UniProtKB/TrEMBL annotation, chains A, B:
UniProt family annotation: Belongs to the class-II aminoacyl-tRNA synthetase family. Type 1 subfamily.
UniProt organism field: Nitrosomonas mobilis
Assigned keywords, A-Z: Aminoacyl-tRNA synthetase, ATP-binding, Cytoplasm, Ligase, Nucleotide-binding, Protein biosynthesis
The reaction(s) this protein catalyses: tRNA(Asx) + L-aspartate + ATP = L-aspartyl-tRNA(Asx) + AMP + diphosphate
Name of this chain's protein: Aspartate--tRNA(Asp/Asn) ligase
Domain (Aminoacyl-transfer RNA synthetases class-II family profile): residue spans on this chain: 141-557
Biological process terms in GO annotation: aspartyl-tRNA aminoacylation
The UniProt record lists the keyword ATP-binding: yes
């Protein structure tokens, strides 16, 4: 139907006759001539309709925004003074010879170049929202990322193997989406939370290198930027150490960024232990664009009389730490109050601070409600350790370590970005040496920090039982600019080790057999050493496009209430369908819409 | 951990030291020396353990089949007389220097090179079944096909866009798999039967060229070779005619076969109308490897007295046709009875025949129970039209056209393969000019032959209402060796035409709006002319690998009872899960396992 994309036309086409198809982006009548900006996925080109060509002119007259038209014409220079250097086709235009309306359009509910749309109307008219150049770019970039990942993985011997979507419910981790079986009455499939067990089985099968870009499902309470279904770049390999896996995976990420973004990432990525990440950044996904780090003060506060600091320093698992903000002395009372409010989200009961107005005048130059509770040598040591300079401000956190880390870690990121300390760059790193387990206060038992198939460090196998809290794993997370974009580990390939982990997690044999029996069986038939990783594709693409919301990089996302505004899914279904599936609705649970 | 794959070692590695990891495929003690065939995904290499190297030898002694080991050693020529030219590494072996057992294995329930396994045991121990070289090859080939398709589509400007898995139930076509929503009480998602509506919306959005290799779900009564979930190469384009789409798609298929199979497919693919396909082959997916065609006799039987033929010739929609089998006169009574039994599956009430023993002796040379009912000039005309030669046999079908076509069409394929008429080759074609609708006897109404979004031929739009049975569509099926591997069409892009089709299908406006409202709305906002196709990946790969069952090209398939023998999905779930999903089990529907 056409010879070229609209967006491809430039000076190289001068004097050529082209046929273009696209949407009427905008129509202007100007000096008896009609101008149409014609848009397709590649861009926009200006079409001119001269009244001398009556047929074409009259057709152009009846077009409206978003009509679909086909135009043939000659490419020519724009007249002097009408050149638009801002766009690719800005110095040419197409003089229309023939035009045909391929389809009409109602007046759309919004302009395609409006950037201030409510998300509700965007999701309801998603097919129009996706016409907007920003959304076209997002999904095109997403395609490029997937394809670049596939090419890299294919070149490195990874085989794309599809694993089932209708699989078994294992109520571990998040809630499953269930699918009632018609053929097997009263039984249910579950949609996969990840292909974890299947990819491990594929290693037992000897496929050696597996990957899949695959949909995963979690029926979680939806937070700001979560989707019921999301996409993982899922990878597993055999006979590689964690160093080799990490090396290969950062090569992949460097190639993706080079291919798609023309960005060069660090080589190698820095690696930091979980313990150091918490110590310096209060977070297991540190944003390295921000140069600020926490200062440890727990040891220093063992003997002070200031009860808030003393208690935190003395309770087991307590921490006192500081965050020094360069030029923070200029913060207003209101700003400090806002930050105090902010850290309270993380459970912090307050946010003590010292303003370092002028170091040259000794303690006189400091300003703080807590100065009077601290001995001078402690204050001097705080100034020394934080490296505070005149004009800085020091914030303090004192509580259980988790609260201090969460609060100061989040404050570090917030202030880092708000006050311009963050570099405008891409800062990837690996976090390694994670603990195997974390203590679940509510359930009063150890939980796997990653998942129960994560291998402990070889020398830590005995700790699994004797001191589970000290056992470190062979897990690794890839973090980029403060976001965990991938997580993986070397897995357990020996059944004896797997049993010890279940024992540490207090999972009885029968329960393990019931849930994961097929994996445990498989481990007994020559399972090779193996490990892998899974990357969150939605999140990576969102970061690359610079959007805050993964909904902007998913063609048809759900709302936070897990609804599709376009198709109105989920919806009521016919009684006959339920009967076939051997289920009925609960009487008192009314449909909400 | 290793330097190379086992299967990669050949003469080029002579005198080199390699480190290999893999599975003990077979161990032999021979003349005081231990030989281990070491297997990985790439192939097998022979390792020799000399008793002089005591440590390695003793480790080798305790290995058993399917142990995972790591071996270092020097590559050397096999001694004279022990060379095995049948395998890639057949003229070399690795003299083991060091060996380490990475994991042990229980005795597997079957040998990895056993080719006579029951499917039950294969599916239960799928992780071992997938170790078998045949299955490794199948899944590797599947990966190559997907990747080749992606590369082709990417190079031709197609964008991989993911569409939702949790979508809306539209009880049309097959039964949906439903997913109860927890957040939206008493409402259900459906798993997609295909991304049809979403890909059309993406065309409305201007993406121009879309593809996705995606999972689809149909809760159908399972026939021999169906799976509840299957994979489609799903494609849609804008601004292309059906000729252009077909041309592009056969280019893709030619490239897949060239890249993956080193097979050159016809260029261009032959095209045949639906009417001709039925006329000549009794099938809309003719197997062109078989040169036999049906012979039309309906006109000839208008005046015979033989009631079976006369009735079929005279009823509306009746057909009398013949299938001439070269050298078929040698068929035994028993063989003819078996074929008669075979066609009865398709509703044929009998299978009349004439044996053409000797044409030189006139009617004397023919042998048939029906000869006496047919006038001589009719018999002569039958011989002339079928082109029967001495030694041939002519089968007859006389009934409603559907029964005649189904019966003789199937018989043609069966005899073609059984009696050696089928070429050993790849014979693709397009079937085009399908009817828009077929009459549903049970429901007493027209049904869409493809789906209700298929565009009628432009000149047939008026027929939609005046004579729906005569309206032809712009649909096209790609057929390969008697199997429909892809089906598609130019879609309706104008709402007025879509309404007419719904009218012909007797779908009221409200129902159409309820089910497809979002598509109908979208068509009003500048939908471009568009069309596409979907290929069945499982089927294509099964054909390429030469297996009869798509289960052999799916890593973790379901049984015909839609169960996974490995994970035991579907399974019973906790009452708490059902409560959260606002459903309960029907009291009288008992679990079946």
């Amino acid at each position: 139907m056409r010879t070229d994309y609209c967006g491809a036309i430039n000076k190289n086409f001068l004097e050529k006759t082209v046929t273009l198809c696209g949407w009427v982006h905008r129509r202007r009548d100007h000096g008896g001539v009609i101008f149409i900006d014609l848009r397709d996925r590649d861009g926009i080109v200006q079409i001119v309709f001269d009244p001398d060509n009556e047929t074409a002119f009259h057709t152009a007259e009846i077009t409206r925004n978003e009509f679909v038209i086909k135009v043939s014409g000659r490419v020519r220079h724009r007249p002097e003074g009408t050149v638009n250097p801002g766009i690719f086709s800005g110095d040419i235009e197409v003089l229309a010879d023939q035009v045909e309306i391929l389809n009409t359009s109602l007046t759309p509910p919004f302009q395609m170049d409006d950037e201030h749309l409510s998300e509700a109307i965007r999701l309801e008219y998603r097919y129009l929202d996706l016409r907007r150049p920003a959304m076209q770019r997002n999904l095109l970039l997403r395609h490029k990322v997937s394809m670049a990942a596939r090419v890299f993985l294919d070149q490195h011997g990874f085989i794309d193997i599809e694993t089932p979507m209708l699989t078994k419910s294992t109520p571990e981790g998040a809630r499953d989406y269930l699918v009632p079986s018609r053929v097997n009455a009263c039984h249910f499939f579950a949609l996969p939370q990840s292909p974890q067990l299947f990819k491990q089985l594929l290693m037992v099968s000897g496929f050696d290198r597996y990957y899949q870009i695959t949909r995963c499902f979690r029926d979680e309470d939806l937070r700001a930027d979560r989707q019921p279904e999301f996409t993982q770049i899922d990878i597993e390999t055999s006979f590689l150490s964690e160093d080799e896996i990490m090396g290969l995976m950062e090569n992949m990420m460097r190639q993706l960024f080079a291919d798609v973004m023309a960005v060069t990432l660090a080589d190698p990525f820095p690696r930091i232990s979980y313990a150091d990440a918490m110590f310096y950044y209060g977070s297991d996904k540190p944003d390295l664009r921000i140069p600020l780090v926490l200062t440890e003060l727990t040891d220093l506060m063992q003997t002070v009389t200031f009860k808030v600091f003393l208690d935190a320093a003395q309770i087991p698992g307590g921490r006192v730490a500081a965050l020094c903000i360069p030029m923070g002395a200029e913060l207003s009372r209101k700003e400090i109050d806002d930050y105090t409010q902010f850290v309270s989200i993380y459970g912090a009961k307050g946010l003590a601070y010292i303003k370092v107005n002028d170091l040259t005048t000794g303690l006189e130059g400091l300003q703080s409600p807590i100065l009077k509770f601290l001995p001078e040598q402690v204050i001097q040591e705080i100034l020394k350790r934080t490296g505070a300079k005149s004009g800085d401000l020091i914030f303090f956190g004192a509580d259980k370590a988790k609260i201090v880390n969460d609060a100061l870690g989040a404050l570090r990121v917030k202030i880092g970005h708000e006050r311009g300390f963050a570099e405008n760059s891409w800062k990837p790193l690996w976090v390694v040496d994670f603990p195997m387990f974390e203590w679940d206060e509510e359930e009063n038992r150890w939980q796997a920090l990653h998942h129960p198939f994560t291998s402990p460090k070889t020398s830590h196998e005995d700790l699994l039982i004797s001191d589970p809290g000290k056992a470190l794993s062979r897990a690794y997370d890839m973090v980029l600019n403060g976001v965990e974009i991938g997580g993986g580990s070397v897995r357990i390939h020996q059944q004896a080790v797997q049993s010890k982990v279940f024992q540490a997690l207090n999972i009885p044999d029968e329960e393990a057999q019931e849930k994961f029996g097929f994996l445990l069986d498989a481990l007994q038939y020559g399972a090779p050493p193996h490990g892998g990783i899974a990357f969150g594709l939605d999140r990576i693409v969102a970061m690359m496009t610079g959007t805050d919301s993964i909904r902007d990089v998913i063609a048809f996302p759900k709302t936070q209430r897990a609804q599709c505004m376009l198709t109105h899914a989920p919806s009521a279904v016919a009684e006959k369908q339920l009967r076939e599936l051997h289920i009925r609705l609960r009487k008192n649970d009314q449909p909400t819409s």
